[in-house]
Amino acid sequence: MSSFIAKKIKKTYAGKIALSEFSLEMNRGDFISIVGESGSGKSTLLRIMAGLEVQDSGQVFLENEEILNPKKKLVPGYDEVKLIHQDYHLFPNSTVSENIRRPLLQYDKNYAKAREEKLLEQFGLKELQGRFPRQLSGGQQQKVAIAAALAIEPEVLLLDEPFSSLDTIQKHQLIDELGDLFKQWKTTVVFVTHDLDDALRLTDNLIILKKGKVVQKGNSFELCTHPQSQYVARLFSPINPIPGQKDAYLRPNEVKLRSKGGLLGHVVDLRFLVHYNLLQIKLKESNKIWEVDDPHRKYQVGDRVYVQWEEEKVMLLPS
Ligand SMILES: Nc1ncnc2c1ncn2[C@@H]1O[C@H](COP(=O)(O)OP(=O)(O)OP(=O)(O)O)[C@@H](O)[C@H]1O
């Protein structure tokens, strides 16, 4: 039996569709990442799921109870369903401990103290408990904000790119740590992001959103190897159109570089990346620019090179 359900959620702003019949069913402790470009409706969806935004139609349920929107509920939102976004608000004149304790003010004192201690411990914040937010790094501040949001033990956590202001190393470390905690606690987590790498860090269970519509669902392997559209394929890597073949594309790592045979081109740009060089190759006949991986770092700008590929690597992708 699913415990968190969104049923045919639709939302328009001034007649423009932001979400179109979005449905989702999750069991307790499931993680899902929803990935989509800016404006695809991710934040709108999470706000509706948290009971903070009025939808045009459709319903959200937690354990068979309907999540009521602000039109139907005097005080919007629920303790059981917590939305965390980038603009987290810590109280600047309260310490780490006080920030975490604030949501627990109305709870039994002993319970509140025990909960605060547990969160400080689990988030590795014990040594920082007496500091004020201005004395913390961005990553530490975000940890405190998330710990505070978890103080009242929500069943569902909705994460709206809360890590986007962190550098990649901090971000990945925080996502890994949180992922472990959420698993321990069996929290149901919906993470929305435009960044596929971040999404995959937390879970392999993906929904791809475009202009308010689900365009594909599945795990990363399925989506990477069998994308059903250019939009989904591009989330994983750039794609190169094959001249003269409608909707036929190749990924940069599937193109072979040879000194003869295939399509002739010239290297017009080279980027040194950690594991390989990324080349831009201008194809002679079509003038198209392809992005191609050069794992052996063999080619230089100006080199003549032939590109080849295996037919089975060609992806047919309607726009
Ligand atoms: N309050 C609003 N009034 C009017 N239009 C809105 C409002 N909020 C969102 N929209 C529009 O709805 C669409 C979806 O917006 P939403 O913020 O949900 O997308 P998103 O995927 O979260 O984008 P981003 O990744 O940039 O945060 C966009 O076209 C946006 O302009």
How do the helices and strands line up, and which of them pair or pack?
Blueprint: E1 4-13, E2 16-26, E3 31-36, H1 42-49, E4 57-62, E5 65-66, E6 81-85, H2 96-101, H3 109-122, H4 138-149, E7 156-160, H5 168-185, E8 188-193, H6 196-202, E9 205-210, E10 213-219, H7 220-225, H8 230-236, E11 240-241, E12 248-250, E13 256-258, E14 263-272, E15 277-283, E16 289-294, E17 304-308, E18 315-316
Parallel strand pairs: 3-8, 3-9, 6-7, 7-8
Antiparallel strand pairs: 1-2, 1-4, 4-5, 9-10, 11-12, 12-18, 13-17, 14-15, 14-17, 15-16
This protein binds adenosine-5'-triphosphate.
Offer a few descriptive terms.
single chain, 319 residues, alpha+beta, Rossmann fold, OB fold (Dihydrolipoamide Acetyltransferase, E2P), 2 domains, six-stranded mixed β-sheet, five-stranded antiparallel β-sheet, 32% strand, binds adenosine-5'-triphosphate
Question: For the residues shown, what is the average pLDDT?
Answer: 93
Which distinct ligands sit in these coordinates?
adenosine-5'-triphosphate
Helix content: 10-25%
CATH superfamily grouping of the largest domain: P-loop containing nucleotide triphosphate hydrolases
Domain module count = 2
Rg (C-alpha, Å): 24 Å
Strand content: 25-35%
Question: Main beta sheet, described?
Answer: 6 strands, mixed
Give the class from helix and strand content and strand pairing: alpha+beta
In whole angstroms, the N-to-C terminal distance is 37 Å
Question: What's the CATH topology label of the largest domain?
Answer: Rossmann fold
Low-confidence parts lasting 5 or more residues at pLDDT below 50? none
User: Which overall shape is indicated by the principal axes computed on the Cα atoms?
Assistant: globular
By CATH reckoning, the class of the largest domain would read Alpha Beta
Please work out how many helical segments DSSP would assign.
8
Using DSSP, what is the number of strands?
18
List the secondary-structure elements in sequence, H or E.
EEEHEEEHHHEHEHEEHHEEEEEEEE
Organism: Algoriphagus faecimaris
Keywords: ATP-binding, Nucleotide-binding, Transport
Pfam families: ABC_tran, TOBE_2
Protein name: Iron(III) transport system ATP-binding protein
